[in-house]
Specification:
Keywords: Methyltransferase, Transferase. This is Methyltransferase domain-containing protein. Pfam families: Methyltransf_25. The structure is a single chain. The chain is α/β, with parallel strands linked by helices and about 290 residues long. Helix content is about 50%, strand content about 20%. It has a seven-stranded mixed sheet, with helices on both faces. β2, α5 and β3 form a beta-alpha-beta unit. It is globular, with a radius of gyration of 18 Å. The model has no long low-confidence stretch (mean pLDDT about 95).
Length: about 290
């Protein structure tokens, strides 16, 4: 069996290597998100044949922010995500900046990609919230203990990389009683339903029940479970459209970049098909520490 620490290092290196590509697709920042978007309206997604790459990227970014606003509403962020917050698996810090700017949270942005930490802190300075956002390079199951317990933990499409039982065990030691763990994630709904997600993103998706069992064993209970699969499905259409538009219009791409974009296009199309076919479920869970 693979060494768990080797797997952690592999994921960290994977995201370090993707930094430039993430900025190109979801940037320029400072709030850069690496997760799906929420599409509440009936307006059709943009397509490569009727929009330029920058326009499609702008729409993707707006809908990614809409996903966080939707999360803030169902998780009651004004009450639960306005104190000391752990953003576990923070990516380039878009969510961390969101909770700090929109709700005044004091955020510890946790990443296992060392190159991302200075990027997050640079964006925090750019936004004027460097006093409320700090980057921490750490494995999720080894979060450092603190004399001051946290009020909440958030994981936006990152918990699929964690050893979930050990993560919840650690959270039980760093959160205060009554604190919330807020998870937005892709869940398995049928055998092999999330294979494309797992293979493309190197993640290990699980069922909602798997999360509930891991959480309950650590002293948490499920408080909320909201399904947003249909409202997030259009993300893959726009993501594929941006990739296709880049391949068709950007003559400066290197052969390696073009190859990577073609792989991404196939993966986006396959993920969109899984969303539509019910092979996966996009859900928002909230657990409370007893």
């Amino acid at each position: 069996m693979p060494d768990p620490q080797d797997e952690v290092r592999l994921v960290g290196q994977y995201y370090d290597d993707k930094t430039a590509r993430l900025v190109r697709k979801y940037g320029p920042g400072p709030r850069i998100h690496y997760h799906v978007g929420h599409y509440a309206s009936t307006e059709p997604p943009l397509r490569a044949d009727n929009a330029a790459p920058d326009a499609i990227r702008g729409s993707i970014r707006r809908h990614q922010e809409d996903l966080l606003r939707y999360a803030a509403k169902i998780w009651d962020a004004e009450q639960r995500l306005s104190g000391r917050v752990l953003d576990v698996g923070c990516g380039l810090g878009g969510g961390s900046l969101f909770w700090a700017q929109e709700y005044g949270a004091d955020v510890t942005a946790v990443t296992n990609a060392p190159e991302h930490a200075p990027v997050v802190e640079g964006f925090a300075r750019e936004c004027g919230v460097d006093g409320r956002v700090r980057a921490l390079v750490s494995d999720a199951k080894q979060l450092p203990l603190d004399d001051r317990p946290y009020d909440a933990a958030v994981a936006i499409e990152s918990s699929g990389y964690f050893d979930r039982p050990r993560w919840f065990e650690r959270l039980a030691r760093v959160l205060r009683p009554g604190a919330s763990v807020c998870v937005e994630e892709v869940f398995i709904t049928r055998p092999h339903g999330a294979d494309v997600w797992a293979e493309y993103f190197y993640t290990k998706p699980a069922t909602v029940l798997d999360y509930v069992k891991a959480a309950e064993a650590a002293g948490f209970e499920l408080a909320d479970d909201v399904d947003a699969t249909s409202e997030t499905a259009p993300f893959w259409e726009e993501s594929a459209a941006w990739t296709k538009a880049m391949l068709e219009t950007d003559g400066s791409l290197s052969p390696a970049d073009r190859r990577q974009l073609r792989i991404s296009l196939l993966a986006n199309q396959a993920l969109g098909a899984e969303w539509q076919a019910g092979g996966v479920r996009l859900g928002f869970l909230r657990f409370e520490l007893k």
